Amino acid sequence: MAPLLRIQELTDLDIEAKKPNKAGVMALFYPDKNEITHLVLILRKTYKGVHSNQVGFPGGRVENFDKNLKHTALRETEEEVGIPKADVRVVKKLTKLYIPPSNFWVHPYVGLIDRTPNLIPQESEVEKILEIDLEHFMDERNLISQELSTSYAKNIQVPAFSLNGHVVWGATAMMLSELKDLLKLAL
């Protein structure tokens, strides 16, 4: 799910020399009131930044007081969508992913909660919470190719997911692709 431009860019890049920031994000699954499994994603607010108005996982930058990256992902998930850290059972760490436009190493985790949460968007950062039905996520017809323009590239063709009427591309799509492959093995 990496755009060709990204693959080429990373070929000879010394990521550690760039001293990237670190972030933790959470791919969180839960049952709805009808016992249908959902995944939580967020639509970010519009702001002056490279990830403005994009779909992503709840999560964010490591803070000095975070014990580790898993704690960061749990803390940020609580802040951004209102799910208490203590309610989340972290079951897996996915592959970390470098995001060149923002210079972040993102460390994704998979978490579960056993009940339907009361999702509350963080007013300052989250435009909308997206609750993605697992069956919809797994449907191969939701894999698309989309031409996009970003703050760093114009008219690029990117592989993406079409989920709940939103185009999900870039690092989030790459992490979703790994998650989908793992779920195919388990289901």
CATH superfamily: Nucleoside Triphosphate Pyrophosphohydrolase
What integer is the average pLDDT?
89
Tell me the Rg in angstroms: 16 Å
Number of helices: 4
Query: What is the terminal separation in angstroms?
Result: 21 Å
**CATH fold-level assignment:** Nucleoside Triphosphate Pyrophosphohydrolase
CATH architecture: Alpha-Beta Complex
CATH top level class name: Alpha Beta
What distinguishing features does this structure have?
alpha+beta, Nucleoside Triphosphate Pyrophosphohydrolase, 8-stranded mixed sheet, 3-stranded antiparallel sheet
Question: How would you explain this protein's 3D organization?
Answer:
With 187 residues, the protein is of the alpha+beta class. It has a single domain, classed as Nucleoside Triphosphate Pyrophosphohydrolase, CATH 3.90.79.10. It is 22% helix and 36% strand. Strands 1, 2, 3, 4, 5, 6, 7 and 8 form an 8-stranded mixed β-sheet that branches. A 3-stranded antiparallel β-sheet has the order 9-10-11. Strand 6 and strand 7 form a beta hairpin. The two termini are 21 Å apart.
